[in-house]
Design brief:
With 495 residues, this protein is an alpha/beta fold. It is 42% helix and 12% strand. It has 3 domains: 20-92, Up-down Bundle (dopa decarboxylase, N-terminal domain), CATH 1.20.1340.10; 118-365, Aspartate Aminotransferase, domain 2; 383-493, Aspartate Aminotransferase, domain 1 (Alpha-Beta Complex). The chain is globular. Bound molecules: pyridoxal-5'-phosphate.
Length: 495
């Protein structure tokens, strides 16, 4: 008899999942832990003082041989994970483009893990597909985007923009890149994509992935407010055509990463229409401002775009990750990516959307659930009110910077990100100022009481304070301002 047949099945308690009673107990315990965490987040340092490798050194080098108790695991969250965190769900996180996981969003995430469905096709989870269609329709209308925009959820804006560039490439007449690829072809001119000098690096990555190459990207210079100059875009396209390039795509940014500049989309859209180029709008952070009816103008001109991406996981209180992508040409996107093997077909295919056909990823999380929870819990008015408050707070901070003799504002504030630096009287050497601002940022961040990050514009180190967190209140902005002034005095005194 073969050996395998002699083996006996292990007892039932050694197989299968955690027993329901135990799940219930630890589930309640964890929800309580999360509620305490969010309630007391103000008292937790937003940054960690740890050194690289410190957590790794405290963890075993191999997975446990036999299972451990949930209580031990949860205890180690407090002991090991908490001190190693940079907190994103902290109201004093003003860094990068911060994001907040709201409580309804957290609950949606929890339920989506419990269902653990894979929304590749309609049949693989009808609710996944249909809730995605409905919530993206709601969001499109709230953002004031046209009704003929078709939506899909991707993990990130980087993925969304890469998909847009692939669709733009698919649209080029006679290229047939889907069948023929790009390499080794004498019949294909070099492709050209345009974006502003301040476009996000995800555009470069998307172009890399699509075989455009970094040299295939032409960065268009900016006006004094860091917006793409449409006249120079037009000139670049004409020059390139003359030199044998094949222009195919323009990416406009609504809310650039460094200063949240808003490229003039209406003018860019006109150029794209005239030149027959795909216009993709990267509104990953800034587009969400349009949820406030008073700020709808940020998406002006986007009705002329072929595609647009906005991230509910940035400024809309939906836990990472959830990026909303809209296009007027889903058929082109589908042509770029659709492959349907027999094992994924179903009898419903003629009548349903199978989202797997519109992108690289097959497996798709049930992300629409958390978007639905957030949209319903806050409502359109609740979301607008919160975004409007961020504008008020950022305006307040901008005023303080503008009026203080030792600080200087470094860019316009079209949204809620304030670019500034310390510039004490009598210190005018740029390198000295850069060093001083580096030290100021390090000092405020080391306090654990706030978190900001920097950018560079024209060689100057610039500090960015981004007000887009759900839990940020006026007192947090007041504290941040006091801390900045206090640390500025210290840094100046010791330099
Ligand atoms: C944040 C951001 C991105 C990248 O977003 P991910 O979802 O992290 O990929 C791209 N473009 C802009 C303008 C952004 O603000």
């Amino acid at each position: 008899m073969p050996n395998a047949m002699k083996q006996t099945t292990p007892p039932k308690e050694l197989l299968g999942d955690m027993p329901p009673a135990e799940f219930r107990q630890h589930g309640h315990q964890l929800v309580d832990w999360i509620a305490d965490f969010l309630e007391r987040i103000d008292d937790v340092p937003v940054t960690t003082g740890m050194q690289p490798g410190e957590l790794r050194d405290k963890l075993p080098t191999a997975a446990p041989r036999s299972g451990e108790s949930m209580s031990d695991i949860l205890a180690d969250v407090d002991r090991l994970i908490m001190p190693s965190m940079t907190h994103w769900n902290h109201p004093a996180n003003f860094a990068y483009f911060n994001s907040s996981g709201s409580s309804p969003g957290i609950l949606g995430e929890m339920l989506s893990a419990a269902y653990n469905v894979n929304c590749m096709t309609w049949q693989s989870c009808p609710a996944g597909t249909e809730l995605e269609q409905v919530t993206l329709g709601w969001l499109r209308d709230l953002l004031g985007l046209p009704r003929d925009m078709w939506g899909i959820i991707y993990d990130t804006a980087s993925t969304a923009s890469m998909q847009a560039i692939a669709a733009a490439r698919e649209q080029i007449a006679g290229l047939n890149v889907r069948e023929e690829g790009l390499a080794g072809r004498a019949d294909v001119p070099r492709l050209r994509l345009y974006a502003s000098e301040q476009a996000h690096m995800s555009i470069d990555k998307g172009a890399l992935t699509c075989g455009i190459g970094l040299k295939g990207i032409r960065k268009i210079p900016l006006d004094e407010s860091y917006r793409m100059r449409p006249d120079l875009l037009e000139r670049a396209i004409a020059e390139d055509r003359k030199d044998g390039w094949l222009p195919f795509c323009v990416v406009a940014t609504v809310g650039t990463t460094s200063t949240t500049a808003l490229d003039p989309v209406p003018e860019i859209a006109k150029i794209c229409e005239r030149e027959d180029l795909w216009l993709h709008v990267d509104a990953a952070h800034g587009g969400i401002a349009a949820l406030d009816p008073e700020r709808r103008y940020v998406l002006d001109g986007c009705d002329g775009a072929d595609s647009i991406v906005a991230n509910p996981h940035k400024w809309m209180f939906v836990p990472i990750d959830l990026s909303a992508f809209y296009t007027r040409k889903p058929d082109v996107l589908k042509r770029a990516f659709s492959l349907v093997p027999e094992y994924l077909r179903s009898v419903h295919d003629a009548n349903v959307e199978n989202y797997m056909e519109y992108g690289v990823a097959l497996g798709r999380r049930f992300r629409a659930l958390k978007l639905w929870f957030v949209l319903r819990y806050f409502g359109a008015e609740g979301l607008a009110r919160r975004i409007s408050e961020h504008f008020r707070l950022a305006g307040m901070f901008t005023d303080w910077i503008d009026r203080h003799p030792s600080f200087e504002r470094m860019a316009p504030v079209p949204l809620t990100t304030v670019c500034f630096r310390a510039h004490p009287a009598g210190v005018d050497d740029e390198e000295t100022l850069n060093g001083l601002n580096d030290r100021l940022m390090t000092a405020v961040n080391a306090s654990g009481r706030m978190f900001i990050t920097q950018t560079k514009l024209n060689g100057c180190t610039i500090l960015r304070l981004v007000v887009s967190h759900l839990r940020t209140e006026e007192k947090h902005i007041v504290n941040a301002w006091q801390l900045l002034q206090e640390k500025c005095r210290e840094v100046c005194a010791t330099s």
